[in-house]
Every structure is written in structure tokens, then in C-alpha cells.
Design goal:
This protein has two helices and three strands, in the order E-E-H-H-E. The protein has a three-stranded antiparallel beta sheet, with no helix packed on it. Strand 1 and strand 2 form a beta hairpin. The radius of gyration is 19 Å and the shape is flat.
Length: 93
């Protein structure tokens, strides 16, 4: 990758509190290095991890889809080096 340093922000639970003019939330900010041009074995392993996580009851069918679509799939591995998290919880009452 030309510029492999990346950041990723994930926002979890969000709860708008209009009567309190605020928002509860959870978030994490991650920094790392992106890697492209992975071996076919590593890319297929990543696809199988996704199938296991998101479609565990359909592993055989997922494997068929993974092999059929493999030629048009790009997997980017990110090795995370730093992270920080924030959470805002409002005490009611």
C-alpha cells in the first residue's frame, strides 16, 4: 500500500437523550498498518473467519460462495498498534 498507516473508528451503542440535550455512546479509535497483496491462503482464511462469525449455520454454502467470488475479493489486513476508547453514560434521576 502506498500509504499503509490507517485509523478506524467504531461507534457502538448510541442512545439519544433529547430531554437531556445529550447522547450516550461507546466508541473505540484504532490505529495501525494496512497490508494488501496477501497470499491466497490468508485471504481464504479471512473469508472463512467471516463465514464462521456471520453465517455459522451455512459454512458449506459460504465456502462455495467464497471460492466462486474469490477472484473479485480484496482482503486488507490491519495490524493494530494503538487504540483508545470512550464512553458516555448519563446518570438519570
Amino acid at each position: 500500500a502506498l500509504h499503509p498507516k490507517v485509523s478506524l473508528c467504531i461507534v457502538g451503542r448510541v442512545n439519544l437523550l433529547p430531554g437531556h440535550f445529550t447522547t450516550e455512546y461507546e466508541s473505540v479509535l484504532l490505529f495501525g498498518t494496512a497490508h494488501t497483496g496477501l497470499s491466497d491462503e490468508e485471504k481464504m482464511h479471512a473469508l472463512h473467519l467471516l463465514i464462521d462469525k456471520l453465517s455459522a449455520d451455512y459454512k458449506d454454502l459460504g465456502d462455495q460462495y467464497a471460492h466462486k467470488s474469490f477472484h473479485r475479493v480484496e482482503i486488507i489486513r490491519i495490524d493494530f498498534t494503538e487504540f483508545s476508547g470512550k464512553r458516555k453514560k448519563v446518570k438519570m434521576g
